[in-house]
Amino acid sequence: ELPYESSLSKFAFYPNPQDVLLGRGRASREWSGNVYLTQLVEHCVPRYTQAKSRFEKTIIAMEIKNRLEKDCNGRFLRRMEDKTGWEVVEEGISKEKINQALRDTVSRMKKATSHRK
Description:
58% of the residues lie in helices and 9% in strands. It has helices at residues 26-30, 32-50, 54-71, 91-116; strands at residues 11-12, 20-21, 76-79, 86-88. The termini are far apart. The model has no long low-confidence stretch (mean pLDDT 88).
């Protein structure tokens, strides 16, 4: 078993299962924290598409972030440049990751719906 790090730490040698890993590729996409983020985003998409203002959309993104961080002790991590471990990203980067996931999911769902017609 890997020696997981405290959720309070700004650096991690190994990410926890509930952490969201920034990056491309299969390893990040299939990481359990990223899978959970995708599930949360998909659950919130109906509210997100009905939101009338940017403020409402921001609230939805913050709810997702709070759920990951507070309920699950998840962090948003990026691989350090020297590849020795992981670092917790700034709040703005994690918010943008969630907002992009929401937009991508909405776009993907619209495409899937239009292909069925």
